[in-house]
Amino acid sequence: IIGDTTIAGIRFLLSERGFIVSPNTFRKAISLRPGELFRQESLEETEKHLRELGIFRFVRIKPIADTLDTVRKHFSILLTPNYQMELGAGLDINYTNRSGGAVGGNLMGLSFSPSFQHRNLFGGAEHFTSSLSPGVEVAWERLGQADFWNTIDLRAEFALTLPEFQDYLGFWQGLHRLTDSKRKLRSHSLYKLLRERAQTNIDLSYNYLLILNWYRYNLLNISYSYDLRINRYERYRINHMAVNVLDPVTDKLFEERLADNEFLARSFGQQVFVSLLFRGLDYEKRTLPNKRGRSRFFNLNFETAGGEVLAINQLYNRLAGRSDNAPISQKADFSQYVKTEVYYHLNRQLERQQSIAARLNFGIAAPFGPTSDAVPYVKQFFVGGANSMRAWAPRGLGPGSYVDTLSLNPDNNTRLFQTGDLKLELNAEYRFPLLWRLKGAFFVDAGNIWTLYEDSTRIGSQFRFREGLVKDPATNQNVRTYPFYKSIAIAGGMGFRLDLSYFIFRFDVGVKLRYNAPQDTEVANPSESLWWNQFNDFTREDYGFGIGLGVPF
What we know:
The protein has an 18-stranded mixed beta sheet that branches. A two-stranded antiparallel sheet has the order 1-2. It has a domain of 79 residues: membrane protein fhac (Ubiquitin-like (UB roll), Roll), CATH 3.10.20. The protein contains 7 helices and 24 strands. By secondary structure, the protein is mostly beta strands. Helices cover 12% and strands 45% of the residues.
């Protein structure tokens, strides 16, 4: 100890490194105050706040009796510093069989994710993280040829977390005064919780995605949000302000698909997502295993964009006596939509390291406003891939009972891009040990996506409760459509997981058991058996392979 100083009644004994963070940061994190009546809550809050700063490996608080005054109690806080800077890296590998890929049916994906974090950037426990994620998807059969690659995905993310609530524009303070002006009890107000427990997040990200001979886009995201932790198991993330810019560029082949698909064309343009006051809310809550070994996780995400722009535009039109909409340019427009997604995880521990895990995922999105008749493509839902319907490639299933005929023909130069406004998916796994660190799992996936409205270019895509007939404008004939539960696809399979403590290496094999549409479309009233895949009819295209890190849910 080379330093001994007292600030605001708190005595600091310093090592040769001096103050790791500013004294003001310490003062705000320590709820125990000299001369105040001791409360156990203050002790627990102090330990919690010091741990959440993220710059200490260990936090120990020890009570010390006062030998001269038995009523008075002292507390010694011992803090062990963590590494201020840290480098990390991640690797993800996946394999997909696509029957309609331009560069062959078997695609191997590889992505590498280096990261850097600084836990005390400006000396006030500001946490800075940055990560890069370059990824590529290649055709296994065409290695060495000029067009062996299929997809390039580049991502860059930067985040700055401030340890306290920052209301720079005074919005939350003004809202608090407005809503609580007639209240006498304000101890449990949202504003008070934000000031006491919230952290401030500033995020910047960029994504460049290129699919060979199909399309490419640039996506820029800037957001300002608050992270409010109620306790170790419950948290809110309030997305206060956000701006997203989407700039897609289409190739000739994809433009031909846009010409035949109005729904896709309306959602795949240059767009700007603007939220000036409120972008969304993310809530999650988890529970520890109870006596029966059952634990739960719940996540609710709500987001919206364009509401403030629409209100300003309508106010301007009313004052000016006009009826104009406010586009950014002739090619770009403001996006206006609402989107909600719910996750519910259930895990049940059994005997001998066995467990059952299940996940329910539901999401719905809808446009609003006079200029938005489709949810932006990047905000729509899709299924398939290593963490979803594992027998299907990403965006290769649905929507509804619609089947993209081009994706079934290996000679067509196409890509999988099917998305929808509504998503329903249920996944379940039985996990068990095999030998040493190797574990196995049997799994079942069921789900699909749908559109909220009938899409004349994708008959059968609409979410509906009853069977009906819809006229196909291309053939001028009636096409039978089915209730949503009839178009739920089912996959089954087995996986192997190598648990290496620091990460889990996963390999899954899924097979299509039930399709989203009957296999014989000429039958007027198809029986249930026509929806199911017969074991003696399994082909290579019915299997999906996934390699990655971690469990799927």
